[in-house]
Design brief:
This protein has helices at 41-48, 104-124, 141-152, 165-173, 187-194, 209-216, 241-245, 266-279, 296-304; strands at 2-5, 16-19, 29-39, 64-68, 74-78, 87-91, 95-97, 132-135, 157-162, 178-181, 200-205, 219-227, 250-253, 287-292, 311-315. Helix 2 (104-124) crosses helix 3 (141-152) and helix 2 crosses helix 8 (266-279). Strands 3, 4, 5, 6, 7, 14 and 15 form a 7-stranded mixed beta sheet that branches. Strands 10-9-8-11-12-13 form a 6-stranded parallel beta sheet, sandwiched between helices. It contains 9 helices and 15 strands. The protein is globular, with a radius of gyration of 19 Å. By secondary structure, the protein is an alpha/beta fold. Helix 6 (209-216) links the parallel strand 11 and strand 12 (219-227).
Length: 319
Amino acid sequence: MRAVQVTEFGGPEVLKPVELPDPVAGPGQVLIDVERVGVNYADTHQAENSYLSPSKLPLVPGGEVAGRTPDGRRVVALVDGGGYAERAVAPEAMAFPLPDGIDDLTALSMLVQGTTAWILLRKNAHLDAGESVVVHAAAGGVGTIAVQLAKAWGAGRVIATASSEEKRALALELGADVAVDSRAENMTETLLEANGGKRVDVVLDMVGGTTTDQSIAALAPFGRLAFYGMAGRKQPKPVELRNLLGHSTTVAGMWLPHVFRLPGNVYGTALTELFDLAGRGVIRAIPGGEYALADARSAHEALRSRGTVGKLLLDPTRR
């Protein structure tokens, strides 16, 4: 089968198209003929071995696929690597049937980015109706879903940040009340101004660096910042506990794999609700570009440039 393999760690240039033997499903696993592959920002960290969980060489990146099982079922699945390929193996428990009307783009947008947005707002931020919500990188995969969910769940004011007029226009189209430039020199002042001079209640942040530092400084009493990535590849300042007392603020982190350790089926609940909302037109997936499998390098280059919007896909059926 055709696949994309990494044999040395590095940037997009290490993604090489190769021919590999077909994977074989073992006990409790299912083989999937892959029709679309979801590209995540985490994949870029995996390729350079800077992700939370260490990578081992050689590796085929990719953690999410949509396709069909040998008996013809349409599924979307979380895989433990191996997604950038024509065929992949997933645990049966991580292969979810696709409802009628849910296309591959929507399915893959909800599988990781959608559930991330759901969990950030529900479990980390505990969003209450009427509260203000800041969504950094609002035109990205998580951001586009988070803006829509926040509005659907009654946020009082949704403030989007993005780096271009086109991205800010998309955020406004998706329901944000105001969209500001993510490159603002003083993000604290920018967020307060966007919120009518008031401090903000919730911030969803995957940027890092000064964006995180200045967002924490913009939080209202009992405000919450949920941190789930570091796209800027720069560490924020260490959080000093005494500084949290100044406004009774909370800084929380979220890594999606930990959700599977929670009691109950939190992930399944999130995905089911997201598919329902998408099926009813309350939220929608934003296409960010579709690449042939052999062009995975180009997809990573686009993603790392932070010039993309929505969800990026690979198509293994394209030559």
